[in-house]
Amino acid sequence: MTDTPTAHDLVAQYIRAIPDFPEPGILFRDITPLLAEPAAFAHALDWLTAQCDGADAVVGVESRGFILGAPIAQRLNRPFVPIRKAGKLPANTITRSYDLEYGSATIEMHSDALSSGARVALVDDLLATGGTAEASLQLLIQAGADVAAVAFLIELEALNGRDRLLPHDIVSMLVY
Fold it and tell me: Has residue 102 been placed in a domain?
């Protein structure tokens, strides 16, 4: 009897590990091979969509969160809301600044993107140290949203990013 690969196994085989990118000592998880394989990408979207079911809107973090979040929102027949780097959105925004390893960054969202009390699902491709996800959650709370789900395609467990996102429930399809 042969083992049938699971959807997780199928997705995992298309995640490419690239050493020393973007700098020495970093093992980058590249999702572009997954995006090039429609069946595996569909499995990833199926799993992530199931995690976001019940949300009033799907929020994706720039930029790979857009690649995942927009089709999830479409599958759920819900609005998609982008969280972008500062200066990229054309209408009135709310902003959140946060510290990075070397410097700081600011993210923003249109101020009219969510109604107060909206149940939202936050989606991104990768949870590493958790800085961007934490700032995104703070931005959603600032907007008056109720965070119903926080879903990642990949989590780098050793970096403990999940700890920064408590008390929210975090789900990740693949954990490395």
Answer: yes
| 109 within a domain of the structure (yes/no) | yes
User: Is 62 contained in some domain?
Assistant: yes
| Active-site residue list | 64, 101
Percent of the chain at pLDDT > 90 equals 91
Each residue of 110-147: pLDDT tens digit?
Answer: 999 999 999 999 999 999 999 999 999 999 999 999 99
Tokens at residue 89, please?
Answer: 């959105």
In a domain, residue 7? The reply is: no
Per-residue pLDDT reduced to its tens digit, 63-105: 999 999 999 999 999 999 999 999 999 999 999 999 877 779 9
CATH code assigned at 79 = 3.40.50.2020
Instruction: Give the range of the structural domain holding residue 146, as residue numbers without chain letter.
Output: 52-175
| Number of domains into which the chain is organized | 1
